[in-house]
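To whoever is on call:

I kicked off a structure prediction for a single chain this morning and the downstream step that reads the tokens threw a length-mismatch warning. I double-checked the sequence; it's 411 residues and nothing unusual in it as far as I can see. Pasting both halves so you can look.
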Amino acid sequence: MIQSLSYTEFSRRIAFGTRHRNVAVQGTIELSHRCPLECLHCYNNLPMNDAEARRSELTTHEYMRLLDEIADLGCLWLCFTGGEIFARRDFFELYEYAKRKGFLVTLFTNGILIDERVANRLAENPPFSIEITLYGRTAQTYEALTRIPGSWEKCMRAIRLLLARNLPLKLKTVAVSVNKHEVYDIKAFADEIGVDLKFDAMMNPRIDCSSAPLSVRLSPTELVELDLHDQARAAEFKRLGSILSPPPQQETPTMYDCGGGVHSWAMDPYGNLTICVLSHKDNFNIREQSFAEAWDGLMDVRRKPATRPTKCTACQIKTMCGMCPANGELENGDPEAPVDFLCHVAHLRAAALDIDIPAHGECEYCAGGSAHHVIAEEAMQLTAASAYTANIEITNIPAESCGGGSCACQK
């Protein structure tokens, strides 16, 4: 008799079996940075007609060689993202080749280029999952962020086409100043059509370090207010805060503590292998070496020792923060320099949810610090306005984490 397993148990066994073996089991490939939208918040988009970008992208043959190599090395989960994945004319050639190689393929898209033909072809050979980013519940809000007239209706068309074909659709959104008033309208819409929704409010600078996306980033107070608005989301942060544990003690602390370079990886459209889609300080190009050689280099990056202790080193609320070397690189030009915005958000979340924060060095947001009064005042305002911070029932809701390589990354 053939034994069957639930997907959860299957994933758990794969994770357990590879955790000490440095198997590149989970990868994210940015097929192109070109995109038909011009979103204010985006960290990597380029115009669709950018000829230089098109010429620089990996060719169909180079992508197929990559897929052959990572299949041989044990990669199982693969995410195709962008830019916009359908910007490549050979998308289906690459996608169907990946499916034949046995990958569980997830597609990240804005949906703008999904028409009847594209939807029908996906239905013939469905992905493991397909995630569409819905930037607003109304055309006015959506297009204020994407800056392309008519784009909202095209996105809604894609959602309708995929639902009609029973494809494994999920929705996500970014929470920024332009659309914050519609985030929970988007959630209500997702509930109405019976699909999951996740949202992310942690904006990053562009990968060229331009701070342009930060112009629409929510303030810490606005961000935490959104968390508290949803009982399940607030309960998840409450749960995370209830399982604080001391940071693992290492003889030589490493700079990274995520899954990048251990079991996950990312590759940009030009063949550069990196820890994740945001970190480009260290990269290894597969046009110059095999993927296996590039992966060895990435593992060396993952083992890179920390050069100094910071207030993040002993912090026990990192799960409420999102600080990582990639964020340090983009905002401060230093992977080990704490990002003030993230620290502010984490401490405000903890204060609003009545979570004690153990001392972790000279932190201006902790009791006795120069900015602690700011946290106290903001938390008081939030808790006074929210009915969700008192007696929240902790529920078993999966936490979102970049460490597993599934980060929404504001796309």
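Update from on-call: the warning came from a stale cache, not from the record. Cleared it. Sanity check on the structure: The two ends are 44 Å apart (CA to CA).
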